[in-house]
Amino acid sequence: MNTCDRVDSIHAAHIQDIHDVPFDVLIRPFPPELDEEKVKSLMETLQNPSTKDNVPPIDVLWITGREGGNYFYSFGGCHRYEAHKRLALPHIRCKLVKSTIQDLRSYLGGSTPDLK
């Protein structure tokens, strides 16, 4: 299994709340490696009203910048993200993992932006 599609992450296993996050606020700093058949299957599942809720939420790091801005970074769930994107869905189901800039730095290293 591709690491960007782990469904049960150690970050969000304890989080029960699922949020519909506007798709356009998500920041995805890394390009995905995709299995086209998996994306197509997820798109079919999402288009069916009776099965769309079977698609697990993605984990999103929620970081508050130094001036109070909210930033939503997504590193996993590549196939789920891509299926939503191709369907031009306005929201994606997410588990928000309250995080810090130091947490983000563990993913981005010296490329970590100055979040305001």
UniProtKB/TrEMBL annotation:
GO cellular component, one term: cytoplasm
Recorded GO MF terms: ATP binding; sulfiredoxin activity
Claim: ATP-binding is one of the keywords in the record: yes
Domain named ParB-like N-terminal: residues: 19-113
Pfam family, one: ParB_N
Classification via InterPro entries: ParB/Sulfiredoxin_sf, ParB_N, Sulfiredoxin
Gene Ontology BP terms: cellular response to oxidative stress
Class of this enzyme: oxidoreductase
Catalytic activity annotation: S-hydroxy-S-oxy-L-cysteinyl-[peroxiredoxin] + [protein]-dithiol + ATP = S-hydroxy-L-cysteinyl-[peroxiredoxin] + [protein]-disulfide + ADP + phosphate
Assigned protein family: Belongs to the sulfiredoxin family.
Official protein name in the record: Sulfiredoxin
Keywords from the named record: Antioxidant, ATP-binding, Disulfide bond, Methylation, Nucleotide-binding, Oxidoreductase
EC number(s) on file: 1.8.98.2
Residues engaged in binding ATP: G77, C78, H79, R80
